[in-house]
Amino acid sequence: MGPPGAGKGTQAERLIETYGISQISTGDMFRAAVKEQTPLGLEAQKYMDNGQLVPDAVTVGIVKERLAKEDCKKGFILDGFPRTTSQAVSLDAILRDLHITLNGVVNIVVSDDALIERTTGRQICRTCGATYHLSFKPTKKQGVCDKCGGELYQRDDDKMETVKKRLSVYAAQTKPLIDYYKNSNLYIEINGERDMEAVFNDIVERLGKSK
Ligand code: ADP
Ligand code: ADP
Ligand code: ZN
User: Fold this and answer.
1) How far apart are CA 103 and CA 177, in angstroms?
2) Which atom of ligand 1 is the closest one to the Cα of 9?
3) Residues of each annotated binding site for ATP
4) Who contacts 121 (Cβ-Cβ below 8 Å, separation ≥6)?
5) Which of 18, 61, 140, 190 has the fewest CB atoms within 10 Å, i.e. is most exposed?
6) In this structure, is residue 183 part of a structural domain?
7) What's the total number of domains in the chain?
8) pLDDT in tens for each of the 211 residues of the chain?
9) Residue 195 CB less than 6 A away from ligand 2
């Protein structure tokens, strides 16, 4: 968990390599559907363009389908889901059905000023989806992905105006969800306002301690 730009995707990308597990990013799944202009993509786009959340029923549906896939048996990290208390309640039911328990709930905390800097400078590879930052994680060659040579682009919803909207949506709809987990022994709060390496090492250490 964490607000837009906290570093969820960046950390998830490294954690899946370290643990040999799958990354389930609802944002990535929606962006792929938008790119393909599937019925799901057309529906999701209406909300994403305005910085709003895609309705819970739609989001829970795609996560449920994804978690049932074979590769999730070796473990997974949910990135950007759940984002509402209702999604968390649905997730608990899905996990119960699949006989899966969570090992930890990581909340990455970053101040609004840093979040705006991070989101507005974020760059994504059109081909492989890798994430960079104009100042904090620049590519070797400007505008070109280090991993695959693909072209980089700025997400439509990373423009200043939409970022501000997303931060207010986060405060209203996602922040209350922290309380849902805070009192469980799963909850791990991470100071995300440090370099990527320090944040990563902290997450690995804290996950190691939580059973
Ligand atoms: P960020 O990583 O910057 O927080 P994401 O890629 O996770 O952004 O999400 C981008 C957009 O996709 C969100 O603004 C929202 O419209 C939609 N989205 C992603 N995950 C969810 C979710 N769990 N519930 C509802 N909408 C979601
Ligand atoms: P989220 O998935 O939470 O929206 P990302 O992982 O996409 O966030 O990170 C947002 C932007 O900030 C990206 O451009 C990323 O390269 C950059 N970033 C991520 N973590 C850090 C960090 N610890 N310090 C500086 N920049 C970071
Ligand atoms: Zn790439």
Assistant:
1) 18
2) 2
3) 5-10, 122, 131-132, 194
4) 133, 134, 135, 136
5) 140
6) yes
7) 1
8) 999 999 999 999 999 999 999 999 999 999 999 999 999 999 999 999 999 999 999 999 999 999 999 999 999 999 999 999 999 999 999 999 999 999 999 999 999 999 999 999 999 999 988 999 999 999 999 999 999 999 999 999 999 999 999 999 999 999 999 999 998 889 999 999 999 999 999 999 999 887 5
9) yes
Parallel/antiparallel/unpaired status of strands 105-109 and 187-191: parallel
Q: Mind telling me the catalytic residues?
A: 8, 83, 122, 155, 166
Q: How far, in Å, is the centroid of ligand 1 from the Cα of 12?
A: 15
pTM above 0.70, yes or no: yes
Atom of ligand 2 nearest to the CA of 134: 14
What CATH number should be reported for the domain holding residue 31?
3.40.50.300
User: Does 7 sit in the ligand 2 pocket, CB within 6 Å?
Assistant: yes
Is residue 209 a part of any domain in this protein? no
Residue 118 lies in a domain: yes
Side chain identity at residue 202, one-letter code: D
**Residue 147 within any structural domain of the chain:** yes
Yes or no: say if 75 and 12 are a contact pair by the CB < 8 Å rule.
no
Q: Is 200 in the pocket of ligand 1 (CB under 6 A)?
A: no
